[in-house]
Design a protein that fits this description.
The protein is α+β, with helices and mostly antiparallel strands. A hairpin with a 2-residue loop joins strand 4 and strand 5. The chain is globular, with a radius of gyration of 19 Å.
Length: 136
């Protein structure tokens, strides 16, 4: 009898359940961001040119979020991630970024002509990433 049969779902080296090798959702996100880059950049420029905000933020998600406006729907485009467009101002208004953290955020905010600021929402939580419009 194999040790795996005896231990069931346990790792033979300890009591931890075996971890299935799952691909990180960030792999599919990177693929989608490359595919979406041109469209996202157009929207970012539009947000800045129209004076809506100098700090566009894009939300990448696979569920439903109640912030921003949907610009790229994963179901319509047969991709993995939906993208919504928002701004620093909306993030402050909704309490995602605290008003006293605005300066800190802006200090770390990368040049919006070169990088998309993406708020990635996954079941485990959410975080900001900066992704270049063109990969070198």
């Amino acid at each position: 009898m194999e040790s795996e049969e005896l231990l069931g779902n346990l790792n033979p080296n300890g009591n931890e359940p075996k971890q299935e090798k799952k691909q990180s959702p960030l792999v599919s996100l990177e693929k989608d961001l490359e595919f979406y880059a041109e469209s996202i950049k157009e929207v970012a420029v539009e947000i800045m040119v129209e004076g809506i905000s100098q700090a566009p933020i894009f939300i990448a998600h696979q569920h439903e979020v109640k912030i921003g406006e949907m610009i790229l729907n994963r179901e319509e485009l047969n991709t993995n991630w939906t993208i919504q467009a928002s701004t620093l101002e909306e993030f402050i208004e909704k309490g995602i970024i605290l008003p006293n953290k605005k300066e800190h955020f802006l200090k770390n905010y990368k040049k919006p002509e070169d990088f998309m600021c993406v708020f990635v929402v996954v079941p485990e939580g959410a975080n900001f990433i900066y992704y270049p419009y063109t990969k070198k």
